[in-house]
Amino acid sequence: MKIAVIPNLDKRDADTYTREILAFLQENGAETLMHEKHRGQYEHVTFCKNHAALAESCDLIVAVGGDGTIIHTAKRAAAFDRAVLGINCGTLGFMAGLEADELEQLAKLIAGEYTIESRMLLEVRVSGAKERRFYALNEAVVSRGSLSRIVELDICNHDKPVMTYEGDGVIVATPTGSTGYSLSAGGPVVDPEVSCLLVTPVCPHSLHCRSTIFSADAVLSVRANAERCPEIYLTVDGEEGLRVGERDVVTISRADRAARLIKIKQQSFYDVLTQKLVNR
Length: 280
What we know:
Blueprint lengths: L1 E6 L6 H14 L3 E5 L10 E3 L2 H7 L2 E6 L1 H12 L4 E6 L9 E2 L6 H6 L3 E13 L4 E5 L2 E6 L6 E7 L2 E8 L1 E5 L7 H4 L11 E7 L9 E4 L3 E6 L7 E5 L3 E5 L4 E15 L5 H10 L2
Parallel strand pairs: 1-2, 1-4, 2-3, 4-5, 5-6, 5-18
Antiparallel strand pairs: 7-8, 7-18, 9-12, 9-16, 10-11, 10-15, 12-13, 13-14, 15-18, 16-17
């Protein structure tokens, strides 16, 4: 079995845990692969020149870090239909399959004693002066810039007007992302087995503005009133973004690929929800 290991070494103790993971996998007969940038740091590893080559060459991936690391890795792996096991070295670790103190359970990974959860991805396209495309596992956010001015956003579904939001912005989330920024903004928790798009306003200038759930077949377009707020930004999963021009349209729909997360422990979504969020 070929297992790629992708660590975020900015996380506390991530290097120590990465060495333990590599040693365990190697001692149990797995071939370990890493990105070329780690050459000289780790031993008995096959190095690949880039992330695409790494994903193509492995059977599955172990991501070592926090939720951001796991999300970023899972999106890249989705292009190659590779499953990802997240090992939490961060604070929350809601996306993780194992905690850093549970590495003995990697034996189940080697033995094939695990299941794979498919998680919906969003395709986010910006059309106008700049044509761009992104993929989101959690959410896409269209929001105002640094000035404290209300933004007016028109939302359509399949080019038919649905609603207009006035406030700081709007979040379009997957069920996976319902426990992230959308939850902080007052949105509902959605079971990841449900296929849908969740739209949650950010600080709406209304007493009656709430989240709206759309079918997974929805094709949502978001256009800003540039006269009301000239600085509009798109942020995808908190890691990618760009300024949206006054004539640009942000279109968000279900992607033609899905993230695949490895589950070793027999915990339901609601067990994790209680452990990570309710009892914090």
